[in-house]
Design goal:
Length: 154
Amino acid sequence: MNMTLISGTVSFVIGLVVSWMSLNLPEASVGIPHAPKVFPAGLGFLMVICSAYLLLREFARIRKNGKAEHEPRNPFLSKIVFTCIFGVLYALLFKPLGYVLSTFVFLQLELFLFNGAAKWRINTVVSLTFSLFIYLLFAKTLGVYLPQTPIIWF
């Protein structure tokens, strides 16, 4: 099975789940009752349509060629997988470590993945500067709630 069929199938299932879950959202108590459901349902529906188109196009290509071709291995596949793993780790660490530390760790891992270990100094400066600047901008200046970092008391 090639990656197009796998990604199309996974996207189709995720789109169905998002659409179904959005219909189970509670109605708004103020204003238009169905307003909170419209955007997520639209995204799920759009995802189902796009993934169905991808699957149909791939099945037509397979029918035309007679068999499914094995695609060459994508050299960036490992980076994509690691980025997904780092994203899940970031989500898990976000509340316990707070915004600053969890973002710093996430950016360090991503920059290490893409820049390598040789540029660790610049990676650290970029990660720390970005984390602190965005936290100060959103939490202190704009008043947007971000989880506090327990060790640094930001």
